[in-house]
Amino acid sequence: MSNKPIDRVAQATPAGVARKVKGLSDRAIAWIFVGPTIFLLLAINIFPLIWTINLSFTNFRANRPNRDVEYVGLRNYERILNDSDIWLSMQATAHFLIWTIVLQVILGFALAWLINRKFKGNDLWTTVIVLPMMLSPAVVGNFWTFLYQPQIGLFNYVISFFTGADPSSFEMLGSVDLAPWSIVIVDTWMWTPFVMLICLAGLRSIPDYIYEAAEVDRASKWRQFWTITIPMVLPFLMLAVLFRGIENFKMFDLVVQLTGGGPGSITELASINLKREAFEKWRTGYSSAFAIILFVTVFGLASIYVKALNKVKER
Amino acid sequence: MKAQKLAAATLLAGGAFTAAPAMADDLTLCWAAWDPANALVELSKEFEAQSGHTMSFEFIPWPNFADRMLNELNSGGQLCDLLIGDSQWIGGGAENGHYVKLNDFFDSESISMDDFAPATVYAYSTWPKGTPNYYALPAMGDANGWFYRKDWFARDDIRAAYKEATGKELGEPQSQSELMEIAKFFQGREIDGNTVYGAAIFTERGSEGITMGATGALYTHGFKYENTPGKYDMEGAVNSPGAIAGLEYYKELYDCCTPPGYTNSYMGESLDAFKSGQAAMAMNWFAFFPGLYADPDTGGDKIDFFVNPPETQAGSTLGGQGISVVSYSESQDAALEYIKWFADPEVQAKWWSLGGYSAHNSVLNDPGFVDSQPFAGDFLEAMKDVQDFWQEPTYAELLLAMQKRLHDYIVADQGTAEEALNKLIEDWTEVFEDEGKL
């Protein structure tokens, strides 16, 4: 008798069950295994999505369950696309998204480049650098609120030390000009280590012999950087941009903690606006339409980006 | 015979609402987490001893109170048997069936709404407004008032400096303009080696802060929600010249006279600014005044209180809440028993003595009431001229729109006061159109 695991399982299977299973085709058994997962996917992802699409064509309000629900056609979509406040929140999101990605890619790559060099305490510094991304966004938001406090905040004192300006003469979170940058700074502080780790993986995946061959060909360090390092790390960088882009498009917690969308609506990102519409104003139909628009936007952009990423990988 | 049947039916119907303590229940009372809530815990021990029921409390911090409780009600949750909800929720509570209508119960228990201050009954209990349909018992009278550093105002050097600067005697402001003048005088002044600031006002964006603060200035300048009550005709009322002047005034007060970084501040920040010795004056709800007066550092002889000063007319922003029985509760009888106990004049007197603001006439009209606390007279005066925000079922949408328009103009410096109020009318019109009221 074979002692393979499959045989042991067959032996241990009760006769009744074995008889029933014996009559099933491979396809049927496959469905039995996959079925629960598909059911969960349908229940948790697909059904809510279809339901949201359905709601987006109605005037339904979740806080008025007794009110008649009317189908309003494309009115919710029309309203959203003509709402200047929605466009302002999309602009705020774009500002946040673009600048956080640019800064995180530059700083993350630079840090990875430095950490990739062999030096004493390399591991310790790697651990220290990745600490911010291990913290809760709520905690980060709270303590940066204190750091930005104009009277007692360390951030203002550091800036004043270098510029000579009075620390309480500027408000990072309260100023219309500075608030959008204050959230960019905090997100960059928190998530640059993530980009660094991905870049580090890319840098460490480049075989040494390629650089050795370049050295033999007397390629300068600058040329090695542009013709070996950058092309080989690029897929990793693009992956980091994809992850951070998707994450920051739906950024909510950190910004709510820092500015609550203010001053005014200057830092009211699309996700904050959506939450207010859905769970504070209770315009469920309208917010469902907004959610669908955001979903299509992210899905569309991500699909284009993934195609570009695949092309880069194929090169 | 007919009369006997009617009497029997009436007795039976009355009996249905008579709170008989047949079984001991565990009641949960939901409210905001603040000083008066602690007083209510203390007060409720008497109810527990009398009724045999036990009381649990769910107190939510103010910034999350509306979100948390409205979600609870909208989902038909059974967390709360009793809810001390904001006055603006009464419309939604009544129309959406969240609150039990209390008329029959009041009749059967001889609880008369005439025993409570009319402004509080109107604001906290009735829906539609002003009709004798009661969904709450006035529980906690409140309004937005002011307090100031009495010790600074009494100092000879400061008084002399103020007289030199303005030609007037320094004292409690008698108008909004004078309040600004005093705030400007204190802004950036060195007192005992510390830089102090004029006024700590409400500027919070997320929940209701900036609206509750700015309406104090708006009402006193002539702002109204409608030209004709119940008609939703807002043009010329919301954006009247007086309303525009009131909004410009509040922005100027924010620009000239608040502590640095005061861009998103509400009750807690106002208390902090005052207690840390930074602010000469501060606005806040009367509910906090007992605690402020008891503060060892800035209370006692160092503090005094004043009602929101008038400009073209008197007006204070209404706070406060009524206590309602949640219709989803499985312990409604015990909850009604609590309401009956709470309405008792003796309990109301004790409620005031513990730091709660009773709205019962027996407390308010007591000859000793005005002298019972240094802020009691101001409270009475404020309650004469209170105005409340919309109490419509869609109040949350209406409030969020005002929060946005006011914060955009006052803090973020976007546009003019007139533009902000015009946009507010557009927002509110859209909400009322959606509701079929326009």
Structure description:
The complex is a heterodimer of chains A (315) and B (438). Chain A is built from 14 helices and no strands. Chain A folds into two domains: 5-55, no CATH class; 75-314, Orthogonal Bundle (MetI-like fold), CATH 1.10.3720.10. Chain A is an all-alpha fold. Chain B is of the alpha/beta class and 438 residues long. Chain B has two domains: 13-142 and 320-387, 3-Layer(aba) Sandwich (D-Maltodextrin-Binding Protein, domain 2), CATH 3.40.190; 144-317 and 394-434, Periplasmic binding protein-like II (D-Maltodextrin-Binding Protein, domain 2). In chain B, 48% of the residues lie in helices and 13% in strands. In chain B, the strands form four sheets. In chain B, strands 2-1-3-12-4 form a five-stranded mixed β-sheet, with helices on both faces. In chain B, strands 8-9-5-10 form a four-stranded mixed β-sheet. The longest helix of chain B has 18 residues, at 417-434. In chain B, 51% of the residues are buried. The interface between A and B is medium-sized, with 29 and 28 residues.
Quickly list its features:
heterodimer; A: 315 residues; mainly alpha; MetI-like fold; 2 domains; 72% helix; globular; B: 438 residues; alpha/beta; D-Maltodextrin-Binding Protein, domain 2; five-stranded mixed β-sheet; 13 strands; disordered N terminus
Quick structural overview:
Chain A is built from 14 helices and no strands. By secondary structure, chain A is mainly alpha-helical.
Q: Kindly, what is the distance between the CA atoms of the first and last residues of chain B, rounded to a whole number of angstroms? A: 51 Å
- The fraction of residues in strands of chain B falls at 5-15%
Q: Biggest sheet of chain B, in brief?
A: 5 strands, mixed
CATH architecture identity of the largest domain in chain B: 3-Layer(aba) Sandwich
Q: Which SSEs are present, and which pair or pack?
A:
The complex is a heterodimer of chains A (315) and B (438).
Chain A: H1 5-12, H2 15-22, H3 26-55, H4 75-81, H5 84-115, H6 122-130, H7 137-147, H8 154-163, H9 179-204, H10 208-216, H11 221-249, H12 253-258, H13 270-279, H14 284-314
Helix pairs in contact in A: 4-14, 5-9, 5-11, 9-11, 11-14, 13-14
Chain B: H1 2-17, E1 26-32, H2 35-51, E2 54-60, H3 62-74, E3 82-86, H4 90-95, H5 103-108, H6 118-125, E4 137-140, E5 144-149, H7 150-154, H8 156-166, H9 176-186, E6 190-191, E7 194-195, E8 197-200, H10 209-221, H11 241-257, H12 267-275, E9 279-285, H13 289-294, E10 303-306, E11 316-317, E12 321-325, H14 332-342, H15 345-354, H16 361-364, H17 369-372, H18 376-384, E13 386-387, H19 395-410, H20 417-434
Parallel strand pairs in B: 1-2, 1-3, 8-9, 11-13
Antiparallel strand pairs in B: 3-12, 4-12, 5-9, 5-10, 6-7
